[in-house]
Amino acid sequence: MRALNLPDWIQFNEIGGIPSNNYVIERPRERWIIDPSIVPPPTPATVARSAEPQLRIIATHAHYDHLLALKKILSANPNSRFLIHCEDQPALNDPTTNVARLFGLEAVFPAPDFLLEDNDLIRLDEDLVLQVWRTPGHTPGSSCFLLSRHSGSRRSSDSETASGNCFREETLGSELGLRILRPGKYIDLADGAICLFTGDTLFCGGIGRTDLPGGSPRMMRDSLYLLHRRLTEMPPDLPVLSGHGPGFPAGDMA
Ligand SMILES: [Zn+2]
After folding, report:
1. What pTM was computed for the model?
2. Residue 66 Cα, ligand 1 centroid: separation in angstroms?
3. Which residues lie at CB < 5 A from ion ligand 1?
4. pLDDT tens, residue by residue, 24-38
5. How many Å lie between the centroid of ligand 1 and the Cα of residue 138?
6. What DSSP string runs through 81-127?
7. Ligand 1 mean position, distance from CA 240 (Å)
8. What is the mean pLDDT of the chain?
């Protein structure tokens, strides 16, 4: 993997028989896993803490090779939460559309605790969010997640982004211990961008398949236009971290 400008509290794990990546974002109170992959990720030791963190799991899409370790992780961590884009929820329970059957498995997966929508901001802590970019084409709900610095609400109901955009915060998921803001439109967070997780939409030198159930070449083309447009606005050294293979800097696509 090329040297990427990643903070030491983000761990990159390439594991499994079919090498699908997972990523761990380690924060003082919570540990966020991007794609459970085939086996649970090793526990990072980059953040000192007095108690075990709450576990939060986010899937970029509902293909089995990104989810096989999910059940094991959830049963070992009963208070963990699982989030995925709403358009990929049906595939969790269907081995044809989660493509397990194609590889001789009958895998189905636990129901999500929270269904994400395009442009949602998942607050990781007081100054970090994951922004949902819905990028359908590989699957209907395939999503990229931009990790960016974005401070908590300065006033009771409004929040200001690094570029000065204000939006009304609607906080969802609080009953689950989550803080999801739903601005209902794209908020430019390029100024604080740390990295982008792209799942199986965009790889180093390639794009995801569109010939699997739920795939759409037309939607993929539109998603790639969107990614290209947004990545040209990002710092050229922004790490782009995909579901398989090495990461690469955003400038390689722009
Ligand atoms: Zn996939």
Report:
1. 0.91
2. 7
3. 63, 200
4. 999 888 999 999 987
5. 7
6. EEEEEGGGHHHHT-TTTTSTGGGT-----PPPSEEE-TT-EEEEETT
7. 17
8. 88
